[in-house]
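BUG-88 | component: ligand-complex export | severity: low

The export step for zinc ion jobs runs without errors, but we want the raw record kept on the ticket for reference. Input record follows.
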Amino acid sequence: MNDMYIKRAVAKRCGLCGCVGDLFELPGVPEKFCSECSADLAMVAQLSTEIGAATKAGRSTDALASELSQTSRRILERTQSAGLRDRD
Ligand SMILES: [Zn+2]
């Protein structure tokens, strides 16, 4: 019962940027994320899969890779700004 309570309290914050709001679950990930972060994480997972498939097929991954790095940077920036807020 205690465990349930803790999980519920923690689940109110995004596991990535720490914002409070509507949160979404991703398959295979214990944390929950806000709509922005879950969309970006889903994008990263999808791009990684596509890059893997393109590599196997011998196709160019340049466009996919640049999209992946843009998405990763966006996630990183959001995480860092959340971290800066916490330190203040
Ligand atoms: Zn978030």
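Assignee comment: Attached the raw record above. The chain has one domain: 2-87.
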